[in-house]
Amino acid sequence: MTQVYAADHVLPVGARPVRRGAVAVVDGLIVAVGPRDEVLAGFPGCTVEELGEAALLPALVNAHTHLEYAQYGGFGDGLEFGAWLGDHVARRPRQEAGDAARAARLGAALSLRSGVGTVADASYSGVAVEAVREAGLRGVVHLEAFGGPEADPAQVASQVRERLAALASSCSPLVRLGISPHSPYTVAPAVFAALAGVAHDEGLTQMTHVAESPAELEAVAHGTGPIAEALQALTRIEATGLHPVDLLARGGLLRAGMILVHAVQLDDHHIATIAASGAAVVHCPRSNANLGCGAAPLVQLLAAGVPVGLGTDSPASAIDFDLWAELRAALLAARIRESRSDALTAEAAIELATSGGAHALGLGAQIGRLEAGLRADLTAIDLRGSPLAPVEDPAVAAVYAGSPERTLLTVVDGVVRYRKGTDEQRIAALVAAAASGRARMMGPQD
After folding, report:
1. Closest of 94, 187, 195 to residue 149, by C-alpha
2. What CATH number does the domain containing 73 carry?
3. Which one of 166, 182, 336, 363 is at 20 to 30 Å from 149 when CA atoms are compared?
């Protein structure tokens, strides 16, 4: 049976918008995109969902999440990076069994409500695998790994292999695993190399937090500073004398399949190094702004040909999983940094959150555009009553009006996984279930 979604504005990404357009889907595959009348004529007897005054576009790709931190919103707000990290480490032991799983289920549902069809998660506990699969999201769940200079690289690698094997049965055709060496300051070079070996053997992507803050540069180069002080009870940081990007490059770790999250503290040399390596970058502007880390050189990264996606990071730094808010932040941060109103257009911002993220995750041949032959991941934003209606430029309207509250539906692999008016009660129940975990993280209250 052919399912057709029709809307006043179809934004295929990589092709011109279609007014009064439609997308036809058969067995989870997009089979046609074009003017509504033409698509309907090609599929007589199809089922049609009329979305009306809406923008229909590819489901968004949130290229960096921490779903199990869904209840962390606002914790440590206003602290400098090292102190914020210390606050995060101090709160985590307050969790009880089941808290992380409940939070991850909530995070997955909120992602769908934000129009997201694919997430790339960095998971401390691994519970995100089941949460992503249950929600029907497409996802890559990268298992976080740590190990300072005193750690045995072979042992850390072996433990990661065991975790991968234990979680393999929770995966699905839509959900696969990856590895996340947390960062060059929490994973010593020898341990990082051992984890890269596991990723290579298993054919997995890697995700790591790199060049996020000035404090990180000090920690990696000298083993000192606010991050070293925040983590001193857990690990010593090896002083390498190098910038994190140069450290990874010198170790042969900067290559295709490596996803660098943040990449704020870069100069032209580092951008060129990343571009030559084939590694990808995930831009998290709200997290970087909230933690005072700065604005990433997005325009320069794109100009160098680096694959760049967009991510919310966790609510601990970005407040929520609203990728539409992240998209607007990316647009504004680029214009502020470059002092140019055309530094990042609305159309280019949508590309970051769709095809850009897909390419960064190695999924560009499957998702990220509305195009015949690609998987049917799509979302629709209600534009009725927005400040952008009547619509002049549908990309501008989608960027500035897009929100979880305006998301009409999110389809993943041809299946409606979120629908406005149907799933609110279920999400409210997930919010309530995760509330006790947040209360424990807050500690005793007066």
Report:
1. 187
2. 3.20.20.140
3. 166
pLDDT at residue 446 in the model: 57
pLDDT at residue 445 in the model: 67
Please give the distance of CA 138 from its chain centroid, rounded to a whole number.
12
In a domain, 439, yes or no: no
Please write the tens of the pLDDT for every residue from 253-300.
999 999 999 999 999 999 999 999 999 999 999 999 999 999 999 999
DSSP element (H, E) containing 29: strand 29-35
Residues sharing a CB contact under 8 Å with residue 417, sequence separation 6 or more, in sequence order? 112, 117, 135, 136, 137, 410, 411
User: How many residues would you count in the chain?
Assistant: 446
Question: Is there a domain that residue 432 lies in?
Answer: no
φ/ψ (deg, to 5) at 61: -115, 110
Give the pLDDT of residue 48.
98
Number of domains in the chain: 2
User: How distant is the alpha carbon of residue 55 from its chain centre?
Assistant: 22
**3-class DSSP state of 170:** helix
Q: Are residues 160 and 234 in the same domain?
A: yes
Report which secondary-structure segment, H or E, holds 31. strand 29-35
- The last residue of one of the domains, among 360, 381, 411, is 360
Low-confidence residues in the chain, pLDDT < 50: none
Q: Is there a contact between 143 and 123 (Cβ–Cβ < 8 Å)?
A: yes
∠ CA(165), CA(167), CA(171), 5° rounding?
A: 115
Q: Is residue 264 part of a domain?
A: yes
Q: Which domain holds residue 38?
A: 3-58+368-426
- pTM of this structure: 0.97
Q: Is residue 45 domain-shared with residue 101, that is, in the same domain?
A: no
Fill in the DSSP letter of residue 183.
-
Q: How far apart are CA 366 and CA 432, in angstroms?
A: 35
Last residue of a domain, one of 360, 376, 391: 360
